[in-house]
Amino acid sequence: MRGRPRDPDLPARVLDAALAEYARSGWAGFTMHAVAGRAGVGKSSMYLRWPTKEQLLVDAIDAYTRPLVVDHDTGSLRGDVLALASSLLAHFLDPMGWVTVRIAVDAAVESVDLGGFHERIVTKHNDAAQRIVDRAIGRGELPAGVDGRPLLEGLFGGVLLHTLALPPSEHAAARTDLAAHVTPLVDLLLRGVGPAATPAVG
Q: How many structural domains compose the chain?
């Protein structure tokens, strides 16, 4: 006797439901039972793929933040950083984007033990920033040896604070012109990174 066919939409439904449930309940009220009910799936189906709620949350963050590590090779350091900053702003302007930030903060202060969070999420974003820097070094825009992590940290923090400072009434307008909102921050950060080293003469 053949079993029920697999539901191809189940993973996406569960991951969306996990973020929505975390937004409503936080870590204290986050349960697999609540996620299953919100997603309209059986808990047994969820446990086959996600044995723990920690693994489910890491997968949800990974899926939702994946567009932030898309490799935008625009041909210049400024263009690459502007593309990343615009993606970050769009992410923070999305209510579910704020949920991923909330989970990351909870994990950072250790009130939530998300095994694999640093390796799968933080390292991936650091690597994406370093690729931008490495391309700039290859083009001669930056000196060799520049670390991409401070650039990513400054960009992430700056865009996050900019989003916090935006009145909700301005969010819709910001979504239509992301680059205009992040350009001043990007230019400030790039001045701090420094110009390419000048070759010695003689």
A: 2
58 and 80 assigned to the same domain: no
Q: Domain range for residue 188?
A: 76-192
Check: CB of residue 132 under 8 Å from CB of residue 80: yes
Could you tell me the two tokens for 120?
């799968």
List of long-range contacts for 133-141, beta carbons under 8 Å, 24+ apart: 133/77, 135/73, 135/77, 135/80, 136/76, 136/77, 136/80, 139/76, 139/77, 140/196, 141/76, 141/77, 141/196
Q: What are the tokens at 17?
A: 């439901």
CATH code at position 30: 1.10.10.60
Please indicate, yes or no, if residue 200 is contained in any of the structural domains. no
- Listed as ranges, residues in the chain with pLDDT below 70 are 1-7, 110-112, 115, 194-202
Same domain? For 26 and 85 the reply is no
Q: Which of 137, 150, 160, 130 is nearest to 69 (CA)?
A: 130
Write the DSSP assignment of 24-57 as a string of letters: HHHHHH--HHHHHHHHT--HHHHHHH-SSHHHHH
